[in-house]
């Protein structure tokens, strides 16, 4: 593309560095900003700068936080003895939205993925190991997405924590509530039969 | 969504103000920036700020430009007597890419669209009228998109320029090069027959 302005070209280039945003979409977004009030652009720029320079991670669970200890870890009503291992802040938000979990989290910051150059040392696994080693943790729940990378990461952490003899569990895989059996994939349906639960338990919720 | 950080929430909110970007996509983009080098975010913020505060519009054609007179208007090899009326800088870029046009442009900054609250006074129509009035313009080419708003805008400008007795034309509508007739819509095909051109003319390019 042949831009009539270096400023425009630079803004479009930087915008198109975002995932899923090509040059054309970037140009559309930037032209939208130009038609809006100047404040909108300045606020966007400021919010991004503030976030990137001021962001903190909870020293206990590594979740994004404005304070040294995140709200969940600082809350005395949450059970510190249960730790749910998740990939990133989106998973924390998703689980919090269910209002079904009262324990702590441990945010890995990714999944082991050799293809993307992400190894165990790039994640917060060592910190989880130390947390368990120092005592007080009774159960670790694996809640990573059910992909090759997720399963690999689960297994790696499982092996790392084996020596401490704590309880480990993984979230249930099965047919989604409201889904029709006939459209479920075989692996999921198969697992949902293998890991069936007593009927009375299903009445509790 | 319940964010663990005000900084994160603010950045996601500002990002989701962009057209076509919802809260979820905004969160994905912002988390992507957090995983990248800090420079990437700062450069994006700076490019947007520079663009919004430093942008100029060519005083002659109203195209985005870093200088008072854009490169096209400042180029003595371009014919100032032909003015192509377009909606925004994207159309200028598209036409420039064809290398088929050697005249000047006039960027309207939008189309007349009562539903969106855009009237003639919001566009650069008055400036076009003055340009024509002051002489030197022989032909005005309408190159707005072929929609209700585009046609309305074309007609409005046409009526405004009528008194000056200059030549007005509109870009040809027809079957795209490489397209099959059987898949063309009836209006386009109908127009392409009504506005047929001498066969020898089609050989020139």
UniProtKB/TrEMBL annotation, chains A, B:
<dbReference type="InterPro" id="IPR034137">
    <property type="entry name" value="TOPRIM_RecR"/>
</dbReference>
<keyword id="KW-0227">DNA damage</keyword>
<keyword id="KW-0862">Zinc</keyword>
<keyword id="KW-0233">DNA recombination</keyword>
<dbReference type="GO" id="GO:0003677">
    <property type="term" value="F:DNA binding"/>
</dbReference>
<dbReference type="GO" id="GO:0008270">
    <property type="term" value="F:zinc ion binding"/>
</dbReference>
<keyword id="KW-0863">Zinc-finger</keyword>
<dbReference type="InterPro" id="IPR023627">
    <property type="entry name" value="Rcmb_RecR"/>
</dbReference>
<dbReference type="Pfam" id="PF21176">
    <property type="entry name" value="RecR_HhH"/>
</dbReference>
<comment type="function">
    <text>May play a role in DNA repair. It seems to be involved in an RecBC-independent recombinational process of DNA repair. It may act with RecF and RecO.</text>
</comment>
<feature type="domain" description="Toprim">
    <location>
        <begin position="81"/>
        <end position="176"/>
    </location>
</feature>
<dbReference type="Pfam" id="PF02132">
    <property type="entry name" value="RecR_ZnF"/>
</dbReference>
<dbReference type="GO" id="GO:0006281">
    <property type="term" value="P:DNA repair"/>
</dbReference>
<protein>
    <recommendedName>
        <fullName>Recombination protein RecR</fullName>
    </recommendedName>
</protein>
<feature type="zinc finger region" description="C4-type">
    <location>
        <begin position="58"/>
        <end position="73"/>
    </location>
</feature>
<comment type="similarity">
    <text>Belongs to the RecR family.</text>
</comment>
<keyword id="KW-0479">Metal-binding</keyword>
<dbReference type="InterPro" id="IPR006171">
    <property type="entry name" value="TOPRIM_dom"/>
</dbReference>
<dbReference type="GO" id="GO:0006310">
    <property type="term" value="P:DNA recombination"/>
</dbReference>
<dbReference type="Pfam" id="PF13662">
    <property type="entry name" value="Toprim_4"/>
</dbReference>
<dbReference type="InterPro" id="IPR015967">
    <property type="entry name" value="Rcmb_RecR_Znf"/>
</dbReference>
<dbReference type="InterPro" id="IPR000093">
    <property type="entry name" value="DNA_Rcmb_RecR"/>
</dbReference>
<keyword id="KW-0234">DNA repair</keyword>
<dbReference type="Pfam" id="PF21175">
    <property type="entry name" value="RecR_C"/>
</dbReference>
